[in-house]
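User: My collaborator sent over this chain with a note saying "see what the structure looks like." That's all I know about it. Can you take a look?
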Amino acid sequence: MLKKLKFIFLIIFFIVFIPIKSMAVEKKQGIKNFPWEYQAYLKELQKKYPNWQFTALYTGLDWKYVIDNENKFGKNLVPKSYSKEWKNTKSGEYNVEVDKGWVDSSRRAVEYSMDPRNFLNYARIFQFEELSYNSKTNNKDGIEKILYGTEFYNRIVEYLNSSGKNIVTTSKYSDLILSAAKTSKVSAYHLASRIKQEVGPFLSHSSISGNVSGYKGLYNFYNIGATSSSEVMGAIKNGLQYAKDGKGASQEVKTKYLIPWNTKEKAITGGAIFIGSSYINSGQDTVYLQKFHVVGSSSLFWHQYMTNVVAPYSESRLIYNGYVNTGLLQGGISFVIPIYNNMPEIPVQSPSVLDSDYTQDNTKVYANVDSSLNIRSGPRNFI
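Assistant: Without extra context I'll predict from the sequence alone. Here is the result:
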């Protein structure tokens, strides 16, 4: 009887766990450690950008298991204006607005968006950019390049205390950002870019001026807690209230995030710790992984920053443009690219590519280009 129970247990164990295959996450650096179908794309990128680093993230998860869990109603959305092929067409779910103007996506949309091989070109690869701190690539010179064109660039930090006295430090903003990156384990470049995005190029921005009535000497460089409000400067004040007391947070939380943010150093570092704690330090350290929760905890597929299924695709272009504008593309940039077990042999096509578009002999060809593609009208004469 005992042997029979053991046998039944083994059957149940394999039935339950076979779809997952393995949840052991493993990272391997270098193009040679990727499956062959990834390597051709990455080798082309390496030719153009020799300082880029590529790390294979073996998730240990079965492809079908991942898609089954991501393809749940309301988990991945597309704009209602998208074509039918992008949408869930199940009865009772088709074109149902999960959020205003957004509907549930089709399974193929999820498969296309999650297949990393579709995005291994010079711009879209930035959805796999490593957002955790990397001592090999993060440095002051790179931070200054990102800050160029703003009042933070090559600037000694000054701030007003709660009494209105101006305090002049011996550190530059790039010093504080690099120090915050090391402490929070968040990419210094990500922090610098986030500051530019949140408060703009001027030190006079109300979130970091230290001169807002009722919030003198308080700073919030990342606009954490700056929720919308109908009150004049409501969002700014909400953010500064967070800088003051964490909006009623426990003492443990305030200590963790260095609250109150009554110096610029505490605001930059404490805010960075907040950013790191939410996603990056738990393993979700790329835009792709923040959208698709396939690593980071034993309970997967729930801790997802956004619902737009093509958000990583869209954001990658914005990130790429930022690197272009700051002249950092030739620097050392690290990418972490997921790999699943039993992936389709050929990358999943975009839902925009219809089977009906192909001629009977499959001679129609699609090319993934960002600008233009020149094609000969006929065979070339080599004589």
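A starting point for your reply to your collaborator: The longest strand covers residues 53-62.
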